[in-house]
Fold each of these.
Amino acid sequence: MKQNTPLIYLQISTAQGPAECRIFARFVLGKLLAEAQVKGIDAELVTETADKYGILSATLKLEGQKAESLAQSWQGTLQWICPSPIRPKHPRKNWYIGVFRLPDMPQMYEMPSENGIEFQTCRSGGKGGQHVNKTESAVRATHKESGISVRVESERSQHANKKLAVMLLAQKLAEHHAEQAENFTQEQHAQLYQVERGNPKRTFVGATFKEK
């Protein structure tokens, strides 16, 4: 990943709309990728659900200094005004899809090495007599990158507590990632059904998708 450049995930959704919406969504995907290329933005198609007419949904990853402005120019409801190209007698001429920004993809932290952990020692609490109070055997381990920390005082020696703290910290990081990944998936799924008709961000007209 490039340094100091935003990383943005966009989802194109037809909200399970008819085939005409899937045709429109396929055009929007191509148009968005083309704009990204012109602006020097790295664009990657992460997921795509397609059929013979077009796409039901797609997720794009954008990276670059202009990624934010590109994303904002597409986010919202998009409208295509056109008689159905596959159902000539269909009365409907307005087709809607949505482009949504997903929350940041959860970061997968690697198994922490001691260089990436800040250790602090302190006296163990609880019962145990004078020996417990005088010996700084308890250890607090903080993962520097995420700020996640654990405190261990169950073992008698500082060395044993430190070793256990690293193991527990790795477990806590994995749990944190799993929770964030689940939230990301739920948000991604929810966006599939949230296209609103009316007040479009951008409108395209006719079989050539000329923008108004």
Amino acid sequence: MNGRADLRVPEEEIHLKRGPAGLGFNIVGGTNQQYITNDDGIFVSRIKEGGAAALDGRLQEGDKILMVNGRELKNLLHNEAVDLFREAGEDVVLKIQHRSQIQNGPSNYKPDGENEGPSLAIFLVPTLIALTSFTIWAVMKYRQRM
């Protein structure tokens, strides 16, 4: 054992048949809206209950979609990827990479305007602590000079 973690993630080919509700999942990502830092890929954001993907059971939220019907999903805008899925036909073959246990993307991401974003407190609390500490230090320095 060399102490390094094996970060390779298994890939899988999944065949889905489009149902009345489409393929049954939502996607995020693309060159214009990265889901994971430094990765322009397309990711599954939500599996719709009762949809084709949910009935198959192998596709999971967070999985990266590498190919659709043999076409690589590289360097695509989000809307181009959406169009590719819409035009994929009734029988769709996905090549996917299952999510790793270590992710640098948001773990609570909500697509389609549902994302509340990080709480403002995440940014304000450290700033306020730093400002308070500096103010106390400055007051103490000022009093030492008197």
Amino acid sequence: MYGCTKRDRIKNEAIRDRMGVASVEDKMRELRLRWFGHVRRRNIEAPGRRCERLAMESLRRGRGRPNKYWGEVIRQDMALLQLTKDMTLDRSVWRSRIKVEC
């Protein structure tokens, strides 16, 4: 599409910049935060919101490093973009803040 091959030895970032395409990591972050905003704007009794209130007591974890869970990844994404949970209520502000610029 761009006319480059592996022999040209051009970094992916340089090609993405020239083509005007955002990185996959940024697009994934945008999609996760878009879904998070959708869930937060739902009614508190909606099935997705009820799962937030579940308490996982007496859950024994296995050995080794614990797996990342969705809430932890969302917290990291929000900290990176300096967002708060209250921003999800205003859809236009939320969408403008999470949008990835190419």
